[in-house]
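>> received
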Amino acid sequence: MKFEAVAEAVEGVPFITDENARYLYDLVLRERLERPLELGFAHGVGSCYVAAALDELGEDGHLTTVDLLSAREWQQPSIEELLDRIGLRDRVTIVREHTGYNWFLHREIDGRSDGGVCRPHFDFCIIDGPKNWTIDGAAFFMVDKLLTPGAIVVFDDVDWTYHWAAGHSDETDGVVHADLSDEELRTPQIRAVAELLVMQHPAYGDFVFTDGDWFLARKSPDGSAAPRTVRIEYI
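>> returned
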């Protein structure tokens, strides 16, 4: 399905920008990513662009996307409604969890483990949840076990802070702003995950920071922690 057709169907629905939507759609096509995982889907606009790119590839590509069960109350229009609009609901498995996507990752790792080894499955992962050092930092290490060699991981909202969010609400995805220290409020926690966890992980390289507030990293072609050449790009 063409990008323009999706853009028309989801026009006015938050939260992905047109620029990031284009970047995401083109990335799936260019890299031929057929088994993407999305952690945090909100209304499902990004999910629609991924599903459309999978459809455009013409293969058996399928998206698995996960969010909080309680978030369904505000997610109107819903991801189901948007996918129905573009006729691609069969391209997506929607999962809603009581406590967030890390328990989904627990279940996936458990189900794909045999003889003490987890079999990787996904070739792409978007992590776009509470933007929290503890939650998303842990999610990265869990996702890593599920990513195939050469897979790409993307984090949204690199420079977002709880200090900014505190001016708009009392909590973010269950994290109560008043419970945080000033340092926790003012630190861009996803940037910390990117720089202190992902970029220091010996199996990752090809790091990209975009002007759309995204961070991308690629797992090594053989999935190992062998000596690497690190490339950092700022778009």
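>> The first helix runs from residue 3 to 9.
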